[in-house]
Amino acid sequence: MGEEQVTTSPIAEAYASKGCERAMQLGNRGPERLDKHGRLAKEILAAYHQSGFYVFTGVLSATEVGELALEFDQLLDNAPTGTGTDVDQHGRPSRFSGYYKFLEGQAGADAPAKVTCLSHPLMLSDGALKCRRFVVL
Known about the structure:
Blueprint: H1 10-24, E1 29-30, H2 42-51, E2 55-56, H3 62-77, E3 100-103, E4 114-118, H4 126-131
Parallel strand pairs: 1-2
Antiparallel strand pairs: 3-4
């Protein structure tokens, strides 16, 4: 799992920064709050219906986030070497070969294709099962 140097232009950085500022002002994020019946607080549901999503903060511990990030890196390391292959760059069977999309032919004939998308990563994650919670709407 090699680290790639990612560079962005000042225009892209400004765009992302403005997007983050706007996102923080939507009023659709915060800790889980329940009413006296154990259902999500009405304010959370209203914010969800207004924006189409709600960001729960403090749901996962730093340790859980670290474990999920490590597992995601392992999923990427186990990616098949390209479309139509079932082994990764180490010669191991790829556990979820059908879930990867690639940018192929960019790094030479012998290099593995670059993963551009991993569909449903939390569905493929054993660690995500430990973090799963159910809340009554």
